[in-house]
Amino acid sequence: MSGIAACLLWQCVFAGDVDTISIYSNSMKKNISCVVITPDSYKKSRHLFPVVYLLHGYSGSYNQWIKIAPQLKNKVDELQIMIVCPDGGYSSWYFDSPVDSSFRYETFVSREVKDYVDKNYHSIADSKHRAISGLSMGGHGGLYLGIRHRDVYGAAGSIGGILDIRPFPNNWDLKKRLGDSICCKQNWENNTVINLINNLKNGELSISFDCGLQDVFIPGNRILHEKLVEMKIDHDYVERPGAHNYPYAKNSIDYQLLFFKKFFERESSANL
Fold it and tell me: What is the DSSP pairing of strand 130-134 with strand 155-159?
């Protein structure tokens, strides 16, 4: 068998396992679904794996990523990582809402899901081997949670993320999560990614975000990039052809996962 044929056969035979699990959220008193993707080698050894948490967009659900990017089943084998896709509700924005106590998705993702995964899976349970990212609303969530929980995640990213929510006071249920942007203005100021980086120091979080050139949300991405440059905070920022859609996200996620893999390897080698 030729080397090329053997390689193709290997790719066909080995692929990660995709499981849908239910995690009870004590903060919201309900069961919430999550997708967990583990590499083929997961069941064959007690090896511990880094974990990438991927967040879905507005109106999406826990299975959005595996639908739009089926290559994730192969990526976990290629990169030897786990991927966890928690359900963030139709429009949670991954907040612990200051106006609706029934929405505690910040707590759910960054504490309850993380604790469940570390207890029930072969994960490396430290921030140097955890990353978080997402698309659109989930891109906001990836950087929002990454910045706010630097003790949990060592790396964070965003794909076509809505990184400044303030220009959209009447869109996507944001008012339901934060209150009216006039009477509850401080809620909006305190919970937009563009402001959260004010307390970020260089080296505290490894950051990668990108946006399509035809994406309507590229202005906010550019402003965040410029602000990070001004603050001298190292980060990766990429603009590439594409719009705010699933084909763009499907392509982009491969680059983000590679960025996270290099982060995991760098942190592991630093501890040797």
Answer: parallel
- 267: CB partners within 8 A, 6+ apart: 128, 129, 154
Alpha helix ranges (H) inside the chain: 3-13, 64-68, 72-79, 105-107, 114-120, 137-148, 174-178, 185-190, 193-196, 218-230, 246-270
Given its phi and psi angles, is residue 25 left (phi above 0), alpha (psi -120 to 50 degrees) or beta?
A: beta
Distance CA 247, CA 270 (A): 36
Q: What percent of the chain has pLDDT over 70?
A: 93
| DSSP single-letter state for residue 96 | B
The two three-digit tokens of residue 40, written as one number: 């083929």
Least confident of 39-48, 161-170, 175-184: 39-48
- What is the predicted pLDDT for the residue at 5? 38
pLDDT at residue 8, rounded to an integer = 40
Among the residues of 14-163, which ranges form H helices?
64-68, 72-79, 105-107, 114-120, 137-148
The pLDDT value recorded for residue 6 is: 37
